[in-house]
Design brief:
The chain has 508 residues and is mainly beta. Helix content is 3%, strand content 50%. Strand 11 and strand 12 form a beta hairpin.
Amino acid sequence: MNFKYVKENEEKSVAEKRKAVDSDYWRQKYHIQGIVGLINDPNGFSQFRGEYHMFYQWNPLKTDHTAKYWAHSVSKDLLHWERKKTALRPETVYSKNGVYSGSGLVIDDKLYLFYTGNVKDEEGNRDSYQCIAISTDGENFKRIEPVITNQPDGYTRHIRDPKVWEKDGIYYMVLGIQSKELKGKVAFYSSENIYDWKFLGEIAGADKGKLGDFGYMWECPDYFQLKDEKTGETADVLAACPQGLEPQEDLYNNKYQSGYFIGKLNYNKPEFIIETDFKEFDRGHDFYAPQSMEDDKRRRILIGWMGIPEEEDYPTTENGWLHCLTLPRELKLENGKLYQVPIEEMEKIRGEKSEFSGVIKGKKEISNGTVYELKAEFSNISSDFGIKLRAGENSETVLKFDYESKKFILDRGKGKQPDKSLRKVYLGEINTLSMRIFVDNSSVEVFINNGEEVFSSRIFPEKNADKNKTATSNITFIQILCPSNFYYTFLYTNNRVHNYKGRQVATA
């Protein structure tokens, strides 16, 4: 099979589309995004020789999910990212239709990437291969023969997205898999040498344990442990992206979901003993396929794809690009509940702040701007209140608390985003509500009550939509911490340097 033109076609597409992409008004200023084309799942998230490595699914040719490469960016602080050359391309017989998602692990001072090679025949029938690529320098990768070539008996060829870790000298892997009954599962493997893998069984999935019908495929599984900061106990967390869940009031309102269970992994049986209900990571319109890693500060860091599979009807496709990744979040466990907190490094890039505190009756414009961090705390809650972000004549994003229903609501009904439905979460009886909000050119990420709930949504406001307003009865404070000109000085993209004012970074 001739793969001569795979790299050549990538470079040609980038050269042809780069100018239109760079000039798009909705290009992000401080989120990882592709230089052209479509990106999706974060992959291989790891730390190697003092640098964070983020790989991510990338189609440089189109804004759809046909060809998949692994793009690659590195950072020393999770804020300022430098794009490296493409790490993996669909240029082997085991990945000719796409280098699908996977994870990274440092072993003996080498960076190992584990990924799924996707192969389809002329009728669209799928073959999946679990593969390894190895690097000694963190930039150049040697690909070896697949280490898992077949699915176990009783399962379809939908098997993908390996997440690998080491415990007591043994390597373990979880994979998303589908049974022949078309039920989503998590497969469990082990290896003593990283190359020879043994199928141990399925540890979780639809129609297993306490779960009933829970989706026809589970993608992008993740497993990790966290120490509860309140109880001191260590809990196991199993994350996955079940496809095929039906909406239930305010739950499961995206086409596909991503979330987690807390419980205990029994390595011997094997089984993940589920102790909680399935909890969505994010309540917004655009969040999927998150991946986590533990860094040298012993933090569990999570980054997700700010998008949803099979949803490409966004206005940026007209200029040849689509999607981005979320900001990094530190995961914390408190009394059996996961919290997501923006990493502390974000505080280092704040600009001059503007503040307001006091009581507002009616409406008040609190700032002008398009790219910023906003902190707000509302107290003595006895009525509806909210904040309008990126407000203009024909666009706005509304964050509000409905006092009667006790629900927090994100409303992006005005703007060029395709899905204009509401996203809600029940908060109950509360006296205080805090929000930490990150607004970029085409996204908003909202962290409620120290990360108890999170909303991540893409927004596409009109160009002059820079008004930010509040309407409420009682406010403790509002701070605007990052003015709109707050960008990083240099952005490195394929050895090109782009000059910006300020200090924040947009990543290609």
